[in-house]
Amino acid sequence: MALDSMEEIFEKMEEGKKPFWQVVLDTDVEERQVTAEASFEKMRTNWRAMLEAVDTYRGERRSVSGLVGGDGAKMADYREKGETLSGDYLSEVIQTALCTGESNACMRKIVAAPTAGACGVLPAVLIPLYRRGAEEDEIVRALYVAAGIGAVIGYRACIAGASGGCQAEIGSASAMAAGALTALRGGGAEQIGHAVAMALKNLMGLVCDPVAGLVEVPCVKRNVIGAVNAASCADMALAGIESRVPVDQVIDCMGDVGRRMPVEFRETALGGLAATPFGQAVKKQMNRRNR
Predict the structure, then answer these.
(1) Is the pLDDT of residue 135 over 90?
(2) In angstroms, what CA-CA distances link 148 with 90, 113, 175?
(3) N or C: which end of the chain has fewer CB within 10 A?
(4) What is the C-alpha separation between 28 and 277, in angstroms, rounded?
């Protein structure tokens, strides 16, 4: 998607007196030469796939390695007791992120947003709002906001762990979710930009260190962190709190950090948690199993 900067989107919003989501939809229509209705229905399909990933979650499923599975169910049981520290919305955000991340690890259908490893962040913040009465069309429009933010990050920096570490995956997903939430709650261009900038800054430098090269540990639980970070940044932006560093400069900085990141911390499973004794033991176990 040819969106080179957040500033470009903001300018198009001002020139056309359009909301963020409409600018992104118009760009998609122009690029893919489809109708606005076809574009919107395609995005609705993505939304319903996110819902399906959560609705079809089963706590008894386990990944091939056995490292992942069941945590979403544990969180659901904990929520039912009404004793969570984080309150009902955030505790459901945590539960939804776990369910979606585990569905990915267990080879179920998910939506890469922007990647499979970060698939739980956007559903985690949006599904609980949908369950609380947000209209489906509102959610779909929020997904266009997320898509526009992801397009800018992909153009100016990166969204792949192999290129920029986990800051490029969970960090980008968190920024997309923060912007989507802000727009969904009526935030304007500046507030969306601040939410995105703060979300990215909070996860700047996060390494990609998957144990045994699997998108499981620590990936699933990092989806939780990305989602909770998004909610906090959206709330800060909506409260009028600003990022001192402009959003496009933050994105550029994230890209630079990713390029400077040692290769051991960019999805190679050669450093970080993957290099711990536990990580090496799991790697040996998986190698034996695959022979």
Answers:
(1) yes
(2) 25, 12, 11
(3) C
(4) 47
